[in-house]
Automatic annotation (TrEMBL), chains A, B:
Enzyme class: ligase
Top-level taxonomic group: Eukaryota
Protein name according to UniProt: Phosphopantothenate--cysteine ligase cab2
Enzyme Commission code: 6.3.2.51
Keyword check for Ligase: yes
Gene name as annotated: CAB2
Keyword annotations: Ligase
Length: 321, 321
């Protein structure tokens, strides 16, 4: 029978290309230049001393064909990233939000990715106008007021594929580098570990008449290494580790910290990620952040706790710099 | 180097399992019973003689892990299906809309899958209330009125995975079967050609430390065959064929017609699908439907033309039954 399995071939690390080779062999996204200009202007417009954060959000796609009909995707609606972006805005940060196209957006996330759409929140007011349905009015007004108040400090940049994401991540990291410890990189996007090099892609839609399909994918280079060492070495870097096997979570999070030398890993399990995460640093025990089911149901997002704790640690980091 | 290639192994058709085996080996979706009840009640509530259409929309996912972090997806926002559903409603049909979760919805499609969300269309009215921003007001009011007028004849059922889709397609087809020629099946969803049997899935998130990844996928059984022959033999069945290689489009569409014996194949190419399609039937030359770039820019959807032509043919089919 078919199976999803890794090849048991040659040792792994030797086969993984380095990040520069990846950039040499892949096309930058169409919005790269425009994103560069927008982010540069946004950083320049912030008052001195205001902290800045890059929040990445949503999953990357890996196309299986050049004329893309199919792709491998990573599970992520963008809940963590979009909610965190709101918390950083509330905490006074300027936020660059690098998100997967059509994933959840700060503030608007409450009203999308649902069965309901815009028209379900509205009704004709009987006088030729439109009003918000009474059952939604209070919540919409409150969210609208928060949004109007904070949106000037929010800049959104979108990606779709893994390559888009990596080019944009490098570009924005390099732009943030001169701001040093004042900036945080909060890497909540679900980034593919595997890719098909673009020159090896099938040109057209893969045909099924030939029977089974076998896909060979390469391991994605570890971009956290140049990010921490080269692109933005003075920034405060937070990465995320999502696993489904509880036994692997801490060792893998610890391994990432040791290997890349960034500041915090937020470790979480797929099925408990909405109420339980661990913050790992090199020099301390894991810090558990947890909310109750009751808090969750009453609309308390765990991102409030994650961001509050990271803002505190970022301040310590920045004042020591 | 890595490559996306098909195995050149044994002849294909012999290896493809039959649809019943697929259903025996996969789990039905959690919403199957609820969908059954809702669709049965919806069909029963329609006045005698009102035509009914099942519109399928959006792409199916194929999970790579049982605790799903990654999946193979088919490119489809659901534009064709959601726009077509509106046209069928305007033409007097009752519409069962079987859609991929979070894909575009009839009427609401104009306001989702965009950078803007609900809050971007609204503003505080300065008197403690909320109003629609003036630049959107006319369009929103017009769409809201259409939606309010037609929504009673629309029933929505959602799917995510390939298995969800196939179980729901069978269930709804069987419920429509007794309505015979009065019903149309309009199969616009982008359905995966390959899958990984659930008992062969990796239990946990596939680890990247081992190096490259090789995925073996089986060909999905051709469900159009039992749908036409067994599930809903008297219904008017329209399938879609999307290709990227122009040379393959007509032969493949023609092959499907000959093989499955349904009524119409709507053939389209990935890059021209928004302004050009061909309707193929067994006994006639392909019928080209085309709109100009200018029409497209002025908001004319080609689905208006596709649905108008299919409604005409469905009437002929129903009166001959």
């Amino acid at each position: 029978m078919s199976t999803a399995s890794k090849t048991q071939a040659a040792p792994a690390e030797r086969k993984v290309i380095d990040p520069d080779t990846y950039f040499d062999h892949n096309q930058p996204p169409a919005n790269l230049q425009q994103a560069h200009s927008a982010v540069a202007a946004f950083i320049g417009a912030q008052e001195a001393g205001r902290p800045i954060v890059l929040v990445t959000s949503g999953g990357t796609t890996v196309p299986l064909e050049n004329n893309t009909v199919r792709f491998v995707d990573n599970f992520s609606a963008g809940t963590r990233g979009s909610s965190s972006a709101e918390q950083f805005l509330e905490a006074g940060y300027a936020v660059v939000f690098l998100y997967r196209e059509h994933s959840l957006q700060p503030f608007n996330r409450q009203y999308s990715h649902r069965t309901e759409g815009l028209l379900d929140y509205l009704q004709p007011d009987g006088r030729g106008g439109i009003s918000v349905r009474p059952e939604y009015k209070e919540r919409v007004l409150s969210d609208l007021n928060r949004y109007e108040q904070l949106r000037a400090r929010l800049l959104k940049v979108s990606f779709t594929t893994l390559a888009d994401y990596l080019f944009l991540l490098r570009e924005i990291s390099l732009l943030l580098a001169p701001t040093g410890a004042r900036s945080m990189l909060y890497l909540a996007a679900a980034v593919s570990d595997f890719f098909i090099p673009s020159h090896s892609l099938a040109e057209h839609k893969i045909q099924s008449a030939g029977g089974d399909l076998t896909l060979h994918m390469n391991q994605v280079p570890k971009f956290l290494r140049p990010l921490v060492k080269v692109w933005a070495p003075a920034c405060f870097v937070v990465s995320f580790k999502l696993e489904t096997d509880p036994g692997l979570l801490e060792p893998k999070a610890r391994h990432a910290l040791d290997k890349y030398g960034h500041h915090v890993v937020v470790a979480n399990l797929l099925h408990t990620r909405k109420w339980q995460v661990w913050l790992l640093t090199r020099d301390a025990d894991p810090c558990l952040l947890q909310i109750s089911q009751d808090q969750l149901l009453r609309g308390h997002d765990i991102e409030q706790d994650i961001v509050a704790e990271l803002v505190r640690r970022h301040k310590v980091h920045a004042s020591a710099a």
